[in-house]
Specification:
Blueprint (H helix, E strand, L loop, with lengths): L1 H16 L2 H14 L23 E3 L15 E2 L5 E9 L3 H14 L13 H8 L3 H13 L3 E5 L5 E7 H8 L3 E6 L2 E6 L4 E3 L6 E5 L7 E2 L5 E6 L4 E4 L21 E5 L1 H7 L3 H5 L8 E6 L5 H10 L8 E5 L16 H4 L3 H13 L4 E6 L18 H10 L7 E4 L1 E2 L7 H16 L3 E5 L31 E8 L1 H4 L2 H4 L17 E3 L7 H6 L5 H12 L13 E7 L15 E4 L2 E4 L7 E5 L14 E4 L2 H18 L9 H12 L8 H5 L14 E2 L9 E3 L12 E5 L4 E4 L24 E2 L1 H14 L1
Parallel strand pairs: 13-25, 14-16, 14-17, 15-16, 17-19, 19-20, 20-24
Antiparallel strand pairs: 1-8, 2-6, 3-5, 3-9, 4-5, 6-7, 10-18, 11-12, 11-26, 12-13, 20-21, 22-23, 25-26, 27-31, 28-30, 29-30
Helix pairs in contact: 1-5, 9-11, 11-18, 12-13, 18-21
Length: 762
Amino acid sequence: MKQKHLVLSVAITAALASLPVAAQTTAAADASVNAAVAGLAPVEAARVTHVVDDRVLVTIPRSQVPLLVHAQPTGAVADSMRMEHMQLILKRSTQREAALASLIRAQQDPASPKYHRWLTPQQFGRYFGVAPADVNAVTTWLVAHGFKVNGIYPSRTDIDFSGTAAQVRAAFHTQEAHYLVNGEQHVANASDIRIPAALQDVVAGMAGLNDFRPQPQHVPPRKLTWDAATESFKLRAGSAQPTGTGASPQTFPFNPSQRGLSPYDMAKMYNVAPLLKQGITGKGVTIAVIEDAEMNPADWQQFNSAFGLTGYGGSFAIVNPPPAGIATDNCYALPYATWGESIETVLDAEWSTAMAPGANVEVASCADFDPSNFNPATSNFFGGVYIAGMNLINGSSRPDIISASYGYDELQVDIASKLADDGMWQQAAGEGISVFVSSGDSGTNAGFNGAQFITLPISPNSFASSPYVTAVGGTDTADVLDGTTSTYFSAKPNKVFGSALSYVPEIPWNDSCGNGAAAKDLGFADGVAMCLYEFKLLSTGAPFTAEGSSGGPSALDGKPAWETLVFGTPGDQSRDLPDVALFGGSFNGYTWALLCTEFDNCAPGLPNGVEGVAGTSLSSPMFAGIQALVNQAMGGQRQGVAAATLYPLAAKEYGAPGGKVPKSLAACNADHGTKGTGACVFHNVTRGGISTNCGSGGAGGFPVINNCYVYQSAWGFGLTSTTNGSYTEAYPAQPGWSFAAGLGSVNAANLVKAWKAYAVTK
């Protein structure tokens, strides 16, 4: 043991001695070309200054998934189980963290000399990564415990390493175990980890100890048939509703047809069309959609052809981004020809193109496992979506925009995984990459996509709650419920299947009986009354669903400065979601976005049918496409954190918290539709909400939880609420910002004008 300590001590001393002159030279070169780092020392003093002693340990709190703290494992994993590409998450000093946050604020401030002075991954690592001596100390310790260190990212915030469950137990003092959670098998650590006290100042935690990974945020697609005689879409036989115990449509049918929204419709609704006519198509801008599986490239081509987008000159590619600084490739390809294609991937690629048909769209895909060993449970443990994102932002060819339509709630995330996700998005912000993430598809808890009931308290999408992300929620068109469809849609579609005439009033997307806007339009006092009606009619067979746009306050991330600028934002200290919203789905599953897939391939005339999709997985890539239009209009330059500009723009229309409310707040109400919102950047969604079905206690066997108002006590059926004893909807739309729809949706043409003015005149 003493010999091991001596080796570690010598290694640390040698690393410290090897540093200085090269670092100083590089710093001078950086400062001469990038004002962002001028005056900032590149390397802090080493913080690992004591012998790394495995007998003197500290516990890293919350390093076990919170959901599992009181759960019983079903058994231990085998000692020989391989755990590939785990990530040791490093932490910078408090002072350096404050300097980075200050820099990113300055990069987003047009009045600052550091405005849009973006960093490279290498500069990020030199100025905001952990000191090389400390990195060496940590890697030496890992190697001493038998781990294979695959490499260190240029950011110097993540060490990629591999090993076995036995090595994890010996080094981190936790047992990997099997768990059964909501009927699904998982592997996770059975306790918080412990590390040598000498490393605690530089090690934040270890990601990859569990297989809770962000999940796609879309609802099951519907297979639609084009009826040429009636010029409408019909639900294909056998595709009426999901099977099993999952979410199902409501009991109020509107029309035997299904409405499919095409790219033409979305361009009309969000006023993208005038920009396309001006040649602002996203040309020269690269959007990366990060995925864990691939798709057939022919789908994208058919989508463009079917919906009239081929003339805009956009491009498409599938990439498996290799890691920079890591010797062993951690990005596994999952070819669609062998493994089938992912609906999530198809959706993201096609609908980012729909809004920016001239952009370069990249599917950046890394699988959750190495397909060569056919063992999905244990390979690439931390997951492909993170690997794809991390490899992209540390690579030599970085995108301008990233869209990620994945998520899990904060209760499903250990602290290291959360810090890894947030750190990745923070680095992207420093590099000027605009990141959009879907807010989630299950109301107040983003971890119940596709479920009938929420059975945990309020918890937003952890993947989207970073202050450096623009979180995109989902809306629904209100015309069907309002009986105004003829005002906003033509009776017959055009040759590219479009029929929208203008912007259409919006409400939050909520497919449950808790939809307050639907309840009132259907003659009920509120969502509770509509839910009770359905229960009386159908008892336990009522169409319970948690499906709807997600929003809520983060318990882990603090509120960024720009989020305090707008009327309606809470006075809390939390990062609140979402930031904005676009179409995400419809009450009763009537309106869908059209999708071309390998089997429903959008051949001319749609003889093979088409698929209908919904979810905030649709909303995020659409907003990424709109951002590509902004980027092109701004000379093709990267714009960084979009929310940092969106909130100041919204403050001009909505006013500030506690201040005088401008007339434009009422004028920009989404309910005005074509009458009054034409001059607005934002459509303020003010009615409806995202309260969906939850369960607490009762014969339904639910755990007793907070944030669930039980309206049917015998079975424990309820609606999500900020209080338990009475119904306080969680959450309603309102004037200004809301948890239900954020700032609302946008008029893209007006957004481009306002963005230009903000960048010039602030």
